[in-house]
Write a structure and sequence with these properties.
Layout (H helix, E strand, L loop, with lengths): L1 E2 L13 H7 L7 E5 L5 H10 L2 E6 L2 H9 L3 E4 L14 E7 L8 H11 E9 L4 H8 L24 H10 L2 E10 L2 E2 L4 H4 L2 E8 L3
Parallel strand pairs: 2-3, 2-5, 3-4, 5-6
Antiparallel strand pairs: 1-4, 6-9, 7-8, 7-9
Amino acid sequence: MAAKTTASTTETVAWRPDFDAIANWIKPNTKILDLGCGDGALLKYLQQERSVFGYGVEIDDKNVLSCLQNGINVIQNDLESGLSSFATDSFDYVILSQTLQAMKHTEDILQEMLRVGREGIVSFPNFGHWKNRLQVICGHMPVSESLPYHWYDTPNIHLCTLGDFEELCHQCHANILECRVMSGDHQVTVLPNLMGKLAFYRFERQMK
């Protein structure tokens, strides 16, 4: 069941380059579903910058409470159970921001995003970044700003590179519309799979 708050706030969300990258793909006054929305900061930012109407899906109790305090409509649910409560094409955009790598059923959630939304937006840490590769060559699982956990306490179970994600999109019949790769607040255009830390993809269902 959706938990909705009527509390109003004028607090401004701090600018973040990853939020801005997603906002650049969002048309004003559209309907958004943010999967694994955390404390609702991204949805709040999109409300301020794009005047969107949105719902978040989050399982953690503390994050759900933070969403309510941030004035975000939130549904407490486990993404692994699917999006069966949402009708086909019920949102303009479905966003999965830095959560893909923690999903057990990665292909299933991507297909559900394609069903529920007219477009999907996914961001994830690029395992192919050169610093990650160097740590693997040196015999260790990577620990970095974008992958801050150690191998024994990480929630990340399906790390991937840009090429891996693009192959998954092909298997799921997702048509990639745009890709943006960043390192900090800078966009990477040269050797993105080697130099980029964070990848963003916008996609839609392939036309039959």
